[in-house]
Automatic annotation (TrEMBL):
InterPro entries in the cross-refs: Spore_V_AE (IPR014204), SpoVA (IPR005562)
Keyword Transmembrane: yes
Native source organism of the sequence: Paenibacillus psychroresistens
Transmembrane intervals: 27-47, 54-71, 83-112
Stated name of the protein: Stage V sporulation protein AE
Keyword terms of this UniProt record: Membrane, Transmembrane, Transmembrane helix
Source organism, top-level taxon: Bacteria
Length: 116
């Protein structure tokens, strides 16, 4: 059953993003930013951890999880190291994902030619 909920929740997040682009006429960049902020706000309210326990990979794989990681890491370090911990842990938590995006984008640019 956990796989079914992960599929349904992850799919619902993707449908939300697609609806924002198709019906709301938002650009992909605006949609992505909105979903990151949504994940950050939900984590700030303390609802993302129960959401992860319920949906599993359906909540940890989509872009909303990036916003969750930013806020969760910042708040955790705020309690441990004070205000400077907010800035330092955001880089610790997100550096692997950002680095992977840069590397994969580089290789995609080498392998594929964009349509002009």
């Amino acid at each position: 059953m956990p796989f079914v909920w992960a599929f349904i929740v992850g799919g619902a997040i993707c449908v939300l993003g697609q609806l924002l682009m198709d019906v709301g006429k938002l650009t992909p960049a605006h949609t992505m930013s909105l979903l990151v902020v949504l994940g950050a706000v939900v984590d700030g309210l303390g609802w993302y951890d129960p959401f992860i326990r319920f949906a599993g990979a359906g909540a940890t794989v989509p872009i909303t999880s990036f916003g969750n990681a930013l806020v969760h890491g910042a708040v955790t370090k705020l309690h441990e190291d004070g205000w400077i911990g907010i800035v330092t842990n955001i880089f610790d938590v997100t550096s692997a994902g950002i680095s992977a995006a840069i590397v994969f984008s580089f290789f995609a640019a080498l392998l594929f030619k964009p349509k002009g």
